[in-house]
């Protein structure tokens, strides 16, 4: 057992960290103020172009992609500390071209896309020229249960016809969003793992409409946003289908595993930043003649946050290691463990930091309120905590249940 | 001991409840949509005028004020179930002219105001013709410790000159906000309970400026809002002082006690509504072939929420009873108990309801996200939880400390 | 609404409190030491006789029984503060002849017993001459589900024959335990509320055997104890049946409601005592140059304990009021609420007090470790928390489910 | 980063695990029953001799000692999974000669002992022929603050004279306990890290007396036990001093670090076993027509326990790795983190398992109640949670405080 980062990961970590602290964090306040001042905040600001170019020049680009031809060739475990650093900042993931859901979409196209799909969509995505969204969750059903899905992708000769309503399509508000990946039911009578189909939908296809942008605890997260999207008789050639009809579930399984752990990695970084802010506040703010750090249970809360962040980080790293070794199926249970634990941990740490900041913590004078909204959403996105706990319990109980059944025979 | 409501309170409760359910709740969605559609949401919509007129005609008006000449003549305990009902709805408190901070300001003017102050400010306030704000908390210091206050109210002959910066001045964004009550230091060398002065400041006084509106977890709470306000050489005649120079702390103590318990009462109602929504969702939404109510720990969470709400309500009622019997000083410790406990309870219940709603719970399709923002703010407003816990502990330990000191002599 | 105790309850409360503090608490340490020193601790020590006589002379006797002929004629709400006082001390309930399960058994015999049963068993029980136990829970099945019960009470002409194994029969170790109330299945095919029969079983009946005494977290709770008891072809005349065959469930429902709330009342007192000890320790023990009360989160923990105890007390009092007004069925849901909440609250408060006492808190130098064992057992006895939470959730969801079903029709 | 165990550790782990499951666990019930049946349970039962001999023959002996001449030559990280396995069973640590406090005492003598001390005490200890205890904590002061220590070790020519009272001296009740390591103040005016001296005290020295054995939540933990010990003018030759006068604090620091992490490793194993038992119960016990695993929040509780155990394990392993790399000082903060987190985690998991077992869980029919007592004690032993949280917070805040101070200059 060796808990040291690989030299390569350590080097990247230092460079990403340095870039974020010297290039991104100092410009965050300016960025958010500029965005807020715009009449239309669904805009890519010049500062992002500038930072993006600089990150690319520095070789800090597409770090999430294990394929060396396109990215840094890092495995999931090596990428983890980098994603953690990026999680500190709302801006950083885009700057390094490592933003969800583009990362997941890129992985799907890289792994399952046709040559044409890759050249048309993956390449510009990996160059940061376009953005994308993922249309899976639906407003009218509990989407944590995939068998509830109502949207359809019906084959009609050499065409596929899409209908349905999706929401929480993150990134669909971005002015550069050029395509979405849609998932719908093709054959309701097939095995529940073979019913669904994924389709690449250009956002200028007739019948595709972004109905509205959804706030998360009051935050619209411009310029990415979370959209409610309607698909009304959207007709596409069959070659817009990814991998083939009925393979949607399989692709989703492969896509969601890494996606979930990337979210968790970033949340570790977000929680770290919240803890840093809490500590700064605790030593600089005075009440009743003492710094806040010397009042009441504040020190214990800070210590508990440190412990929680450290345990969660190790858990995420271990899961990344499993994922690298055994793939999404081998790490299935571990992925659910971290997905059930890390967002809730982050919410608690951020909420503690908010409380230490007083009213300021709830305003936008600090990045904490937005951080809470982001972390809170991840207790629901990509499967609510409770669904992941269910997976963990099922795995845990399986051997015991089988032993008990054997006993009873 | 008798836990039955007084007949008068029961009658009012039934009428308020009925009014809210039949008149207000059905129009809430429309109200919020209309407000959101406005280019300037800092507006009083006609529906509010309409509802307000109807509530007044129904005798459901100024119910918070114990003085029978102006209100219903209810004591705090009788008002509690009415405030709880109002807490269910963002709109209801204004409709019944029972909105904070107008209620607290009205109490201050009623109890401490001069004849002139009352006729000029209290009367139109009680008629709902104007609104008001309260300027106490400051951005640059930990305001939970009153001795930190930096704003000044300097006597200069028959004038008083105000300087300083305040924030979280709730209601200052309302188009009808005509005056604020400002608190500042007059004599920094006086006893710490005699340093401060309260002054009525018309919002059109030169030197008074609303600098910006502050979001709470992304919510600006239009059209009331929470403002950051600057006072720059604001000059007023000395008769704008309430009760007299140096009496600010005394007035604040009297004002904040009832104010805190009113917040708690409303939060009970808000938590009740969140629990109702959670139950509705739990029985109507299906996943994995079962209603959510039959999945995982959802039932236990609902049961725990019911228990928490019931315990908190009894705690608030008991505190109101103490307040009626013994005044703010006699109920000082109990007020801190409920203020430390009820907002946190409400946050947990609302958060649970959000989780049961999935992504929808975080959006504005349900009133839950806004409810969370409101409840979360009250873990900080009027004293953060930790300060109130400190009061409770001090009271709890006092007798033991005195006994220990006696022992040691 | 009036939160003041009735004058009668207040008077009793003062007398009981005074008796416990002046007569019982000063002798507790001596009592426990004496008992521990005995080769056979299943003994009634002379000090108990002495205290019992004094309590009886003071008119503090059978306070639990609402019937004025036998007790003080107090209703449940009036008894609550007295039971709370008794809960402070392991010894007190017996001293006032208010010890479980004798209280519940007395209520059963008083309400359902035949004339002969009452004169043979109830009278000496109310005079404190004998003790009793209640045999319901079984080792081999989840007894929280009454339909699991395996023990049988078979009618055979004018006799009834008992077989089965029971455990957690509290009090069966006492040298004065003369009878138990046994519950068994008589007609497995009857409606599930009419299957069971209760029988009075003298402890000297052939076939009745106490197999062993069960520890609770290492405590045997001598001289009462919790026994595992076997019934092997125990034959009794049919007039040993209480109320009639098949009425066991009905009697149990009536018995368990008050029994549960009595446990909760006593736990409030136990938690109060733990909180007192915590405060004493916090102000008298010094580390790192400060009293423990000024270290870390100790004050917040003490404040939270105060709030939790106060909320729980009000909850229990409200439930007692409901029970007095509406009977066990009307208070069914409320009883489950307090039973699910109060033991867990007591465990937390006691555990906090233990932590403040360091190692001493885990030893028997303070009554805290035994208190934790007692409170922890009550998270299981008379229905585990989870079963009561299930009742609360079912009640909470019922109206919503019915509304949803109506909607769907 | 590589989360795989070293081949050597994996091999030992398999052998230790196998030995425990096939040799120890099947005999535990018999062992405890036999011990309980003894008139004097302060006895080493033959089964222990037998198992001990077998373990030694199998080369599973002194695994804790990094020195290859005496033990397996494993570093702390390699020992961790072995200690975890041993933690499953009350008996296992002694069987493998890896029992606290003998392990810590052996390390002290190995590292600091004179040649004579080592041959007289260390050798028989490592051969399992004698046992030992550690006398540090005192009843009359908060021993978490070492400067409170009152016991004295006064130099008098070539002799040292010990006086004072110690408690929680674990293992002092064992019939083979032949020596204790005593810590006392030698020079109260020296720097607080140079005041104390450690002395080897044979248990047959005049003036040494075990006053009583202390229960932990009702458990005396025979035959090891936790003693209160008095030292009354205990006179020893100066060569009984370890390392030299005034070096007690230094030795304690070195001793307590590994000691704390060993406790945490074992607690991971104990929590694992509790979780296994919980799962077994959940799938085999039925109520309301379903296995407990399908009722209420039980699955979520099991899932959360799995997550908590996994996170804690990784945290402990990481800390062991730090300890191997950087020594007790370099791992100081990490050691406090795990010590503050792991015992509390274990208590929660065990308590959850108890609740799933119903009353049986609180009795001695399962090892859960004793496990809870053991884990609960470790929230206090070797520093209460709160002291360790204080260390963690101090470390966390240091850089922020220094930055703030720099700012202010």
TrEMBL record, chains A, B, C, D:
Cofactor(s) needed for function: FAD
InterPro entries associated with the record: Acyl-CoA_dehydrogenase (IPR050741), Acyl-CoA_Oxase/DH_mid-dom (IPR006091), Acyl-CoA_Oxase/DH_mid-dom_sf (IPR046373), AcylCo_DH-like_C (IPR036250), AcylCo_DH/oxidase_C (IPR009075), AcylCoA_DH/ox_N (IPR013786), AcylCoA_DH/ox_N_sf (IPR037069), AcylCoA_DH/oxidase_NM_dom_sf (IPR009100)
Residue stretches making up the Acyl-CoA dehydrogenase/oxidase C-terminal domain: 246-395
Keywords: FAD, Flavoprotein, Oxidoreductase
Chain ranges of the Acyl-CoA dehydrogenase/oxidase N-terminal domain: 9-128
Molecular function (Gene Ontology), one example: flavin adenine dinucleotide binding
Matching SUPFAM superfamilies: Acyl-CoA dehydrogenase C-terminal domain-like (SSF47203), Acyl-CoA dehydrogenase NM domain-like (SSF56645)
GO BP annotation list: fatty acid beta-oxidation using acyl-CoA dehydrogenase
Highest taxon in the source lineage: Bacteria
Pfam family, one: Acyl-CoA_dh_1
GO CC aspect terms: cytoplasm
Domain Acyl-CoA oxidase/dehydrogenase middle: 133-234
Cited PANTHER family: ACYL-COA DEHYDROGENASE FAMILY MEMBER 11 (PTHR48083:SF13), MEDIUM-CHAIN SPECIFIC ACYL-COA DEHYDROGENASE, MITOCHONDRIAL-RELATED (PTHR48083)
Subunit architecture: Homodimer.
Similarity comment: Belongs to the acyl-CoA dehydrogenase family.
Name of the featured protein: Acyl-CoA dehydrogenase family protein
């Amino acid at each position: 057992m060796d808990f040291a980062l690989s030299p390569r990961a350590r080097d990247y970590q230092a460079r990403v960290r340095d870039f974020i602290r010297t290039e991104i964090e100092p410009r965050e306040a300016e960025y958010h103020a500029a965005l807020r001042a715009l009449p239309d905040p669904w805009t890519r600001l010049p500062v992002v172009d500038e930072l993006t170019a600089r990150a690319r020049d520095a070789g800090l680009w597409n770090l999430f992609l294990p394929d060396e031809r396109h990215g840094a060739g890092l495995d999931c475990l090596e990428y983890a500390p980098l994603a953690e650093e990026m999680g500190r900042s709302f801006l950083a993931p885009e700057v390094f071209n490592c933003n969800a859901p583009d990362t997941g979409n890129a992985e799907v196209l890289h792994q399952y896309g046709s040559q044409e799909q890759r050249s048309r969509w993956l390449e510009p995505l990996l160059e940061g020229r376009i953005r994308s969204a993922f249309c899976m969750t639906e407003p009218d059903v509990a989407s944590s249960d995939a068998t509830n899905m109502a949207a359809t992708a019906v084959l009609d000769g050499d065409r596929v016809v899409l209908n349905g309503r999706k929401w929480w399509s993150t990134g669909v508000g971005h002015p550069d969003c050029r395509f979405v990946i849609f998932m719908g039911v093709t054959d309701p009578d097939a095995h529940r793992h073979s019913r669904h189909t994924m389709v690449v939908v250009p956002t200028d296809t007739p019948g595709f409409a972004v109905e509205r942008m959804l706030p998360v605890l009051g935050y619209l997260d411009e310029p990415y946003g979370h959209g409610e999207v309607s698909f009304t008789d959207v007709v596409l050639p069959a070659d817009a289908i990814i991998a083939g009809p009925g393979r949607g579930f399989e692709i989703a399984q492969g896509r969601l595993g890494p996606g979930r752990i990337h979210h968790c990695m970033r949340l570790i970084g977000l929680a770290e930043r919240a803890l840093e802010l809490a500590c700064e506040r605790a030593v600089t703010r005075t009440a009743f003649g003492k710094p806040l750090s010397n009042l009441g249970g504040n020190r214990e809360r800070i210590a508990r946050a440190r412990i929680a962040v450290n345990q969660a980080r190790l858990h995420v790293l271990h899961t990344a290691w499993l994922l690298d070794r055994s793939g999404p199926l081998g790490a299935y249970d571990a992925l659910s463990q971290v997905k059930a634990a890390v967002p809730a941990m982050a919410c608690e740490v951020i909420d503690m930091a908010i409380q230490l900041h007083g009213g300021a913590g709830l305003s936008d004078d600090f990045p904490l309120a937005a951080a809470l909204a982001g972390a809170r959403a991840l207790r629901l996105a990509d499967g609510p905590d409770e669904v992941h706990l269910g997976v963990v319990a099922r795995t845990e109980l399986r051997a015991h249940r089988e032993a008990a059944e054997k006993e009873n025979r």
